[in-house]
Amino acid sequence: MILMSVFGQVVTYVAVVGLLLPFVLYVVARWRAYKATSHDPQLGIKVALGYFMVTALQVLLAGGAALLYAIISSDEDKGSIYRAAFGLIVPGALVFFSHASLLKMTNQEQYPAVRRMLAGYNLLLTGLIGMTALVAAFEALFQRGSSHGFGRAAAAGVLVYGSAWAVTGWRFARMVLGDRSGSPENIVPPGPPSSQPPAAAPPAQPGLPPLGGGAFPPIR
Description:
5 helices; 0% strand; elongated; 67% helix
């Protein structure tokens, strides 16, 4: 009961962060767009689509963890767990892939600032839930006596969210550390062409004319 109470508090914290942080991200993105030299006309729609895509991914991961727990669980009534898992997986997959396809139609390749912030937000949520599942798994491991299925649920969470944590962290590192080209708001425009005339060629050095060709009378 103590472990379930701690886990419930963490889930509440994740829900509050998931609801409030997108507004903070939008304000930060709007402030950066205001400070930038180029204007992003699709900033709001990219934040909205990215928020729903990240939320759908978290629902999809929760359904995957529930499905894995139904597979490894020793509970006799696995049908209800399977139904609950697919009830999360199906809508999560529909919302995720539909919003991902809509995001491909935006200008996120030319203005990747929103995509990077949402990728960091996704990494924060996935890592927080994965770390919570890891702590719960070790608490169930070192608990005296049987954990009554809590350990298997925590193990399923570690496998699903731990793998997602590693993948999202690797992709976020590639997105942030591997992008050396710079975004359009950081590109410095070229200066005006110089109005100075081109430098004249150096004058030819004076010298004696060639001796051949009868330029001088023959010496007697």
